Amino acid sequence: MLTSLSIDLDALEHYHRVHGIPEPSPGEDPVYGKAVERFGELCARLGIRGTAFCVGRNLDHPRAAAAVRRLAEGGHEVANHSFSHDYALSSRSPAEIAAELRGGADAIARVTSQPPVGFRAPGYTLSPALLRALTTDGYRYDSSAFPALPYYLGKAAVMGVLALMRQPSRAILDRPRVLLAPRTPYHPRPDEPYARGTPPDALPILELPITTGLLGFPLIGTFIATVPGWALRALSLGTSRLPLFSLELHGVDLLDASDVSPALAPRQRDLAVPAVKKLARIEAFVRRLADREWVTLAEAAERLGTGDGDDRRPTGTPAGTRRPC
Ligand SMILES: [Zn+2]
Questions:
Q1: Ligand 1 center–CA 122 separation, angstroms
Q2: C-alpha angle 163-169-262 in degrees, rounded to nearest 5
Q3: Quick one: which of 60, 63, 54, 64 has its CA closest to 114?
Q4: Is domain 2-304 annotated with CATH 3.30.1360.40?
Q5: How far apart are alpha carbons 160 and 30 in whole angstroms?
Q6: Distance from the CA of 10 to the center of ligand 1, in angstroms?
Q7: How far is ligand 1, taken at its centre, from the CA of residue 84, in Å?
Q8: Are 30 and 275 in contact (CB under 8 A)?
Q9: CA-to-CA separations, 265 to 123, 209, 274, 300, in angstroms, rounded
């Protein structure tokens, strides 16, 4: 049984877009500063190595690049979260998708000297064209499938309210088919990213779904940091049998209202909880999974994938596992 801890480094500008509020002026972003540092410190306390999904454009800032470089030097995996975090990436043209993938990969390679082998789609949304492009570029795994019913319904409701208020969000709602995606790693069908393929009708890339709990409850950082422990234990029922528990955080999970702009703080309710408290809750949740092996997602893909037709091997992190201590 494997477990992975990953973090999506979505800069705060993306949250402004999700909430339909004016974007902040470009500058130093606490996600690529304090959040990256706190993620590295969290992993160090737990004695594990994690995976950080970076948005290539944000690595243009020297301070952001230095923070991510330090993370990579600490043995953590740095993976691709696209170049600009376009929520509609999955519906773009093949040329636009290829440019987003390569822009993100090039930025990461410039910072870490290692090309990424893993990808997570902005907004968790996949399409056949996006998976085809990832396969063409030799990615070993994708980790975007998120079959979380409460998250899906909540996102639909928020987008509906914003549309009624004439403040449309730039996010897009995935197809309901995502809710039927497998909860265990799988090689997708070329025509349906959310269905398990069977050889020869299966892509070589391995899909590593983000773990959901009871009734599709999203067991991700935002909720782990804010939901009481007894409720989390109940909502985690059934996850102990999964071959991979993929625990996902976002950079904002490691920040609080004192780290962000006054316009964003009241709209993102989890920012009201002090970062110290959220980190303690996440750490406690991770320690409850201590009986499993902890690996980066690249290592998980190597261990769980068949590798059929895929000659690109994970790089950047040595093989091996650690348990939280
Ligand atoms: Zn993201």
A1: 5
A2: 110
A3: 54
A4: no
A5: 29
A6: 5
A7: 10
A8: no
A9: 21, 30, 12, 35
Please report which helix (H) or strand (E) contains residue 118, including its range: strand 118-119
Tokens, residue 215: 């009734």
Burial of 61 (0-12, 13-18, 19+ CB in 10 A): middle
Q: How far apart are CA 48 and CA 286, in angstroms?
A: 10
CA of 18 to the centre of ligand 1 (A): 11
Residues 175-201 have pLDDT tens digits of: 888 898 999 999 999 999 999 999 889
Do 260 and 320 form a contact (C-beta atoms < 8 A)?
Answer: no
d(CA 306, CA 34): 38
Among 197, 290, 194, CA closest to 247? 290
The closest of 50, 68, 79, 73 to 111, measured between CA atoms, is 68
Model pLDDT, residue 13: 86
Q: Ligand 1 centre and the CA of 199: distance in Å? A: 31
Report the predicted TM-score, pTM, of the whole model to 2 decimal places. 0.89
Contact at 8 Å (CB) between 32 and 63?
yes
- Pick the closest to residue 210 from 247, 168, 160, 178 (CA basis): 247
Which portions of the chain are predicted below pLDDT 50? 307-325
List, for residues 250-268, the tens digit of each pLDDT value.
Answer: 999 999 999 998 888 998 8
Q: DSSP states of 148-192 as a string? A: -HHHHHHHHHHHHHHHHTT---S--PPPGGGGGS-SS-BPEETTE
Residues β-bridged to residue 77: 51
Report pLDDT for 23: 76
Ligand 1 centroid–CA 224 distance in Å is 18
Q: What is the pLDDT of residue 177?
A: 87
Find the 289 Cα to ligand 1 centroid distance in Å: 25
Distance 123 CA to ligand 1 centre (A): 6
Task: Say how many Å lie between the CA of residue 58 and the centre of ligand 1.
Answer: 12
Listed by start position, the domains of the chain span 2-304
